[in-house]
Amino acid sequence: MKKRFLRYIAPAVMLMSAPILSAQETSAIPPAETALNSGNTAWIIVATILVMLMTIPGLAFFYGGLVRQKNVLSIMMQCLIITAAISIEWIFIGYSWVFGTGFMDGNPLGAVIGGFDKIFLSGMTLDTLTSGGIPEILFALFQCMFAVITPSLIIGAFAERIKFSGFLVFTLLWALLVYNPMAHWVWGGGWMHQAGVIDFAGGTVVHINAGVSALVMVLLLGRRKGYRTIGHPITPHNIPFVVIGTALLWLGWFGFNAGSGLAADGLAANAFLVTHLATATAAAAWMCLEWIINKKPTIVGICTGAVAGLVAITPAAGTTDAFGAFFIGLLSALVCFVMVAYVKPKLKYDDSLDAFGVHGIGGLVGALLTGVFATQFVTGEGGVQGALYGD
Question: Which candidate, 184, 179, 180, 177, places its Cα nearest to that of 110?
Fold first, then answer.
């Protein structure tokens, strides 16, 4: 019965997420501008570097510290090769499938997948600009870092259970057949975008997408050898690695969220603020929950709480203020804690590093709360606002 129930979680979460995100902002399909903006360009270069740091070395340290010692190099190698392989795939075909049109322009199939007109970034020159007056080649590279981090998140679910060759084939196929279509649907003018689904920095495309895929992989692969029962999880081998990884993720997430507006402006400043506040709140809340329930807080718990807060604020970073960020961080910690500490052991699925419990559930919580805490204080007069403010 439990196994049958779990098989229905993934599609249910994905279906639930679509209408919820209709209140979010977007950096998708940016309109072209005629004059280069050097300030915005410099900021997006920095943001691109920050997002890259999230995967290597941030996620490599975070996941590498959580697994057993015999698997740490495997995890780090996976993060490194994902960065290389997905970067090639993205420049070759991924960007075109997500943001291209070509013969798909005006074709009903264009709602499902992009065209082939931007393969190897063809047609772009140094003077081809996009939103905010930044070069399109820079926008393509910024989006490449999102394409890299997303499959990297999934390896936290099947860590210690898959051969390198199988992992590599899965990653490339997943990027081609899952990430690229999903990114096109939401960010590239596809059917979800046309239906009103908007996503500021990756609540759907990155976190719910990766989290649900992680759960599917967990159910297909089964539990690890040596996986023990509730109350006796496999012990992380290097907690300082986890702390270093968390710090790098926290830092890199500023580029992830604040860079998604594609400009060095007030929206970026607000995204910086709410990202930091939600993360700090979630980390502190997770610590308090452990203290109350287990009588002792842990550094791994604080790190997990911080990541949950980072995930949850991602869809809301372009629409909420400090008030909303505080409650998004607080509630994401509570829900993700219950998922990781109680639901996962109860259902006995082995999500090694809680990719679904933190990213899938955290992304869904953030999406739901975006529809509550979105405010015209951030979105501007006539912009979207959430249920708390009357819409």
Answer: 184
3 state SS of 129: strand
Superfamily covering domain 2-383: Ammonium transporter AmtB like domains (1.10.3430.10)
Each domain of the chain, given as residue ranges in start order, spans: 2-383
Tokens standing for residue 105 = 């322009």
How far CA 259 is from CA of 45, 50, 149, in Å, comes to 9, 9, 15
Which is it for the CA torsion 245, 267, 263, 119, positive or negative? positive
Structure tokens belonging to residue 309: 């807060």
How far apart, in whole angstroms, are the C-alpha atoms of residue 149 and residue 134? 22
The set of residues, in sequence order, having a beta carbon less than 8 Å from that of 213 and lying 6+ positions away, is: 10, 154, 174, 178
The SS3 of residue 130 is strand
Asked if 146 and 90 count as a contact pair (C-beta separation under 8 A), the reply is no
CA distance linking residue 39 with residue 270, whole number of Å: 17
Instruction: Return the H-helix or E-strand segment holding 319.
Output: none
Cβ atoms within 10 Å of 254's Cβ, excluding its own: 21
Q: What is the model's pTM?
A: 0.88
Within 10 angstroms of residue 294's Cβ, the number of other Cβ atoms is 11
Question: pLDDT by residue (tens digit) across 1-32?
Answer: 445 544 544 444 444 444 344 433 444 556 66
pLDDT in tens, 51-98: 999 999 999 999 999 988 888 999 999 999 999 999 999 999 999 999
